[in-house]
Amino acid sequence: MFKKKEFQKLKEYLIEKLLFLFSLVSILATVGIVAVLSFETFAFFNEVSLLKFFTDTQWTPLFVKKHFGILPLLCGTLLTTLIAMLIALPVGLISAVYLSEYSSEKAKNIIKPIMEILAAIPTVVYGYFALLFVTPLLRKCIPGMSGFNSLSSGFVMGIMIIPLISSLSEDAFHAVPMGLREAGYALGSNRLQVSLRIVFPAAFSGVLAACVLAVSRAVGETMIVAIAAGQQPRLTLNPLVPVETITAYIVQVSLGDTPHGSLEYRTIFACGMFLFVMTYFLNIVSYKLRRRFQQVYE
Amino acid sequence: MNNRVINKRLDGLFKALGILTTVFGLSVLLVLFIDVFLDGASRLSLDFFTSFPSRKPEAAGILSAWVGTIWIMAVTGCIALPLGIGSGIYLEEYAPKNRLTALIEISIANLAGVPSVIFGLLGLGLFVRWFNLDRSVLAGGLTLAILVLPVIILSTREALRAIPFSIREASYAVGATKWQTVYCQVLPAALGNIMTGVILAMSRAVGETAPLITIGALTYIAFLPQAPVAFSGEFPFIHLSLQGLFDPFTALPIQIFNWVSRPQKGFSVNASAGIIVLLGITLAMNSVAIILRYRQRKKTRW
Amino acid sequence: MNNTAFSIKQMRAFYGAKEVIKGVDISIMPNTVTALIGPSGCGKSTFIRSLNRINDLIPSFRISGDIMYRQKDIYDKETDVVELRRRVGMVFQKPNPFPKSIYENIAYGLRIHGLNIKDTIDEIVESSLKKAALWDEVKDNLKQNALTLSGGQQQRLCIARTLATQPEVILFDEPCSALDPISTAKIEELIHHLKQNYTIVIVTHNMQQAARVSDYSGFFLLGELIEVGRTHEIFTAPKDKRTEEYITGRFG
Hints:
The structure holds 3 protein chains of 3 kinds.
Chain A: H1 2-47, H2 50-55, H3 71-102, H4 105-120, H5 123-141, H6 150-175, H7 178-186, H8 191-202, H9 204-220, H10 223-228, H11 246-255, H12 263-296
Helix pairs in contact in A: 1-12, 3-6, 3-9, 4-6, 5-6, 6-9, 7-8, 9-12, 11-12
Chain B: H1 2-40, H2 46-50, H3 63-94, H4 99-113, H5 116-130, H6 137-161, H7 165-173, H8 178-207, H9 210-214, E1 229-231, E2 238-240, H10 252-260, H11 265-299
Antiparallel strand pairs in B: 1-2
Chain C: E1 6-15, E2 18-28, E3 33-37, H1 44-50, E4 61-69, E5 72-73, H2 81-87, E6 88-91, H3 102-112, H4 118-131, H5 135-138, H6 151-164, E7 169-173, H7 181-194, E8 199-203, H8 207-213, E9 216-221, E10 224-230, H9 231-236, H10 241-247
Parallel strand pairs in C: 3-8, 3-9, 6-7, 7-8
Antiparallel strand pairs in C: 1-2, 1-4, 4-5, 9-10
């Protein structure tokens, strides 16, 4: 009897330690990402100056005459993100208001799972859709549009992000206390006035958190832009010509056979680092906004 | 008076707009499905599943791709499930409130927001180069395991949190130890919701392309990783081997990407056919998860 | 004094910095029913939850003083909490059956203590349900999910679950507060029967219940044990004015 208990205590102890070790893997992974990126990035900046990296307006590491200016890639990333947000923001927000304030519980129970499916589609499929369906369609309406362009990839990326904005904002609207709405109705407002003048402002920081997160997703999105936006780093705001995003560049280099340890190899880590820092800040901002929102409606 | 009429009209207008926007996403989804189906359905045949990729589009198939996907998923699952569910249990049931726990939680939140392509860079720097795993099944599986880890941890935690504290009290009150309480009461009660999260996480992993491309998964592979179980006429007739873990691989989304990026029409048809298969897998997994969650919600009322 | 079940001296308990029990002394005799009464928030629940150390689950909880069970300090470092909880069972305020079958609810306690013989488990399940006066209602549906039972049945199942592991003490923490009068009567009757074999401590805010079921009563107020004694004395001739005021309904 005594022995059995000692054994049990040991077992309890070992299980707890094992589970603890498991959860350390998350720290290791984070440290691993930062370490791998920093290591190669430092090596990269030993050869390329930071100033050049941020000010040079050309990105041609794979050419003979090499330029390492991140601006064209950043421009491509921001352009596709902007187009995506122009689609996703209005559509996602209006549909969130509709789902939260107008639609019946029943309709919501059907629509939300379908929205989830929209979010679950692999991005390579969206890329296919952008390149082989949306672009040909747009080219019929917009002559002179290139086969690779930021417009159709941004558009499809927007579609992909709609569920994210709509479901997170809907959660935020949902968290607004019923009492506020009732107060609005009691003053004689109609549903639209309550939705837009009471619920929306009350949930604003929650909605903003959703939007910032959506931007972060768009900035980090890879396959759609790698397939449909092209591989030409270019400092332009023209949505009809090929561009290249940071993520697409990483894919482009990965497809080739770039020797390990070469400067070209290191560029993708430097790009990765840049991307990581960008999304990290966006995520932090989103998190802070969400926290603030949650604190208001505890 | 006039004002009220205008307001009423506006309300109606907004409602119509709301329906329109909500349906917008869904109709694009529908168009996508129809487009893919029209393009690719004709290409689906048994041959398509049993052929290797080829330079001739009509002869190419997805054999190495779907076998590779299964390999990768198996590795990802074997690593991410115990790690993810275990971490979730630790954080929800065991972890003391201290700095280390806070650090773990921050790491998970951070990992959950990292773009998938960066996991590929991690895999490339860490597994492919540093661990010298090369562009193997194991390197790919490890990379995707870390990618889905935060998703599994977060959904495990949420599922455990939904179990009322009174169940734990009841178990302790009859003299159960912590692990007995967790393993015999809390975990079974939360299992439905945990599985929902796990399936959703795995369905995300199935479609992940960027990390695998980044670690350099080859796109043209005319052989399969060595099968884990082989049969032969000689004793002992069954041969078990994990050598396949170290073989190079391709996967369904990579194969699709490869075909999409080729200009010839024949390959884009192949891509659509591949997409039908990939969508079939993701949608099936998602449906299972949604049904599971729905049933779980109906079943348990505390 | 050596034949007491619990002997408690200068018990103090805290949630964080808030002191909820402020120096309580009490002895609890074996094979008796001791009722603890008092207005809500007076520390009686915290007190009873300290006797099987279930409060250990609350991170901010701290306790000091001598809390002896059968001459052993239950807050000693060497104490096996698991064994303590087996010997000191507990029934909670709200019925909390496991989301499993009726049978499994009772068998669980046996299995975790290493009993794996099916016939013996079957026997104990039956006898526990009989002792908890639930057997006749559920004997044909032992595989049924416990959550489908009514509240009163669930609470009796929880009592049966506690009885199955053969404790010496049973702690009842307001066991009837979530139940209807008929179920309450059944459980009170049950407590009365159980007294022969178990030491029982019951927390209740219902004074009639305390008067009906207990041998001894203790009156808690704001974390202090104002008065303890034979139930009929407490209810007919309380020594402390505050006890009298509470019992006669002036406050609480």
